[in-house]
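User: I'm designing a mutation panel for phenylalanine--tRNA ligase and want to avoid disrupting the core. Could you give me a predicted structure to guide residue selection? Please restate the sequence first so the numbering is unambiguous.

Assistant: Good idea. Sequence first, for numbering, then the predicted structure tokens:
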Amino acid sequence: MTKILLNRVQYLPSSFIKLSFCRAPKSLPILQIKNKEYQADEISNVTPKILSYLNRNLHLQKDHPLSKVRQRIVNYFYSSFTHRGNPAFSVYDNLSPVVSTKQNFDDLLIPEDHPSRAKSDCYYVNSTTLLRAHMTAHQSELLKAGLENFLMIGDVYRRDEIDSTHFPVFHQVDAVRSQRKEHLFENHPGLEIFETTFDPETPHLCQNNIIDPVKQSCHTLEATKLMEAQLKNHLVGLVKVLFGDEIQHRWVEAYFPFTHPSWEMEIFYENKWMEVLGCGIVRNEILAASGPNNSIAYAFGIGLERIAMALYKIPDIRLMWSNDSGFLTQFQNKDLNANITYKPVSVYPQCTNDLSFWLPSTLTVDTFMSNDFYDLVRDIGGDVIEQVKLKDKFVHPKTKKQSLCYSIVYRHLERTLTQAEVNKIHKDIERAAQQVFGVQIR
């Protein structure tokens, strides 16, 4: 059996495992991630470059902008919610990013055919294990542990496009707040969380649905509206703490499989509306399956990078991963609530090269997965890849051969790249594309 230490390999094409299967389908590699072994299969698509980010924990690094935003959010919940003089919320910020598909999808009622499960969207270790795509993946396990109010903070992994605001790894704060009847209706003991037709003691015998856009069928309107009011008030308070009392906000109805009703909050930032978080009332099926069958809960998720980039005027998400002292020192030894505006140390020029190739007969311009190509480019070019864009699709009128053209923008954050350096990386990408996808360079 082949063993591949993915966190030590310098370069391995993202589709290496797929190609290995074609050559030796009976010899599937074993992947070793953080001292634990996982059996690869035909779904595996995690790459060494992605795994190299696993131990960085930027959200826990002192004075890092992501850590500052994390601490400000934690402080808000600590100060806003107390129980007998102690914080009511517990914080979990060092949970393993390797989770099961059950945790990431099934426990959250995400349907089998939901696009978020697609191999093109997630980094799968194998068909039953992946790098978490959201911190909500830990929600059920914490509820089963008996927790009612908690924050989950960490790095999450999604295959995505490449530009100044998208990176395959980013950081989230997710939260759950649960309330029983005696707490929710402390001043109105005659009101109920559940409809009289619903028995919370035997939820498996009661059919809950989300046909009504206003509430889940098991919940009373009073309980839903009171939780909605609390949720929105708490989150408005949070964005005011982060962006100031004058920040404008609005609520947009949304859909998430694990909450109903659901909303997104947008703030008016730099003359346009920017979405900053998603939230909603937790589906009762999730609570019942996790233990608390006599409560109602709200949940929300917020991305740290988006908040930090807006607060500190950071123009490129890659800077979050920079070890450049010119970047990091701007946030060191500063008050947590200080008004910091990032000042570019210097601006280095871009180098742009196009890459065109003919697709093999087994692929078309519509079935070729750009995210597969983006991962390959990242694996080879690393953090000097600033942006990759699909520039053109072409079908030859006579031969019917199909072609794609991608524009790749190279820029180093700390020095000027020479064209010779760029050309070498570009040639390596060409060779890898030929090897991995069977394309013919034009």
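For picking mutation sites, this is relevant: The domain at 348-442 is CATH 3.30.70.380 (Alpha-Beta Plaits). Residues 1-25 have pLDDT under 50 and may be disordered.
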